[in-house]
Design goal:
alpha+beta
C-alpha cells in the first residue's frame, strides 16, 4: 500500500500530528490549534506532503478523546482534496 499515514493526538486545545511515509519513516510532525483554522492548516500540510511525495492515498487515524475530535473529523471529511 503506497499511502501517507497520518496519526493525530487530539486534545481540547491542540492537535499534534505525525505524518509517516509509506516505508514507515517519519515525514514530519507538527501541532495545530483544535479549531477550524487549525483543521484547515492540517489539511494543507497533508495535501502538501501528498503532492511532495506524489502519493494519492492517505490513511488518517486519531484517538477518540471525548468530543474534542468531532470538529476535526468533520473538517477533514469535508475537504475534497483529501477525499
Amino acid at each position: 500500500m503506497n499511502s501517507l499515514f497520518v496519526g493525530i493526538d487530539v486534545s481540547s486545545k491542540n492537535n499534534v500530528t505525525y505524518l509517516m511515509k509509506p516505508d514507515g519513516s517519519k515525514y514530519s510532525s507538527f501541532s495545530v490549534q483544535n479549531n477550524l483554522g487549525g483543521a484547515k492548516l492540517m489539511s494543507e500540510k497533508i495535501v502538501s506532503a501528498l503532492e511532495a511525495m506524489q502519493i494519492s492515498d492517505v490513511v488518517i487515524g486519531l484517538e477518540a478523546t471525548s468530543i474534542y475530535g468531532d470538529g476535526l473529523v468533520c473538517a477533514l471529511r469535508e475537504d475534497g482534496r483529501l477525499g
